[in-house]
Amino acid sequence: MTPCPLCAADDVHPYHRDARRDYLQCRNCDLVFVPPWQRLASVDEKAVYDRHENSPEDPGYRRFLSRLFDPLRDRLAPGAWGLDFGAGPGPTLSVMFEEAGHPMAIYDPFYAPDTRVFACRYDFITATEVVEHLFFPGRELERLACLLNEGGWLGVMTKRVLSREAFARWHYIQDPTHVTFFSEASFRWLARRLGMRVEFPAPDVVLLHNPVLDSD
Predict the structure, then answer these.
(1) Alpha carbon of residue 201 to chain centroid
(2) 3-state secondary structure of 158
(3) 91: domain range?
(4) pTM confidence score
(5) Is 101:131 a contact under the CB 8 Å cutoff?
(6) pLDDT of 98-128, one tens digit each?
């Protein structure tokens, strides 16, 4: 049995199986994940992403992203600087924040792989429809949290595991690039691990707040 890719615990058990893959669940952090040997190779993974047709000119896609954009924007100071992690082939959320007066950097391992963005610090970081693709979500999310300034925000949008019965008929697991599935309990575990406060302001949306350290 493979360790959990979020918390690295060995307390993992079978959760579900379909015609294509197995799904394991960690008893420590509640993450459900596909075992490493059933993940796509990078070239096959990118071939799926290349079929995406997201664009900032698409009003429907903007409405979809507004579920994260609206509550996060409301919590930002004017001119707050952000990073869109996993921007994809048609960066759009970064455009929406720039239109609202927030300068943005973008990163995507396939489409914008400039790792110099990890040498900077940010007031907020977004990851929309990203964490379900991460092979090592614990490592990646901890790296992002370390890039936040005091009082900064990490905004995540991903569909959440609700129950074993719902999981068995869930369309979200049909995407072969989706390999890690968070529940609300998983995000609460992550918040404790990172020393952050967690909020769930909208369906599929999670905001993690980096506290301001007491100067006294």
Answers:
(1) 15
(2) coil
(3) 12-209
(4) 0.96
(5) no
(6) 999 999 999 999 999 999 999 999 999 999 9
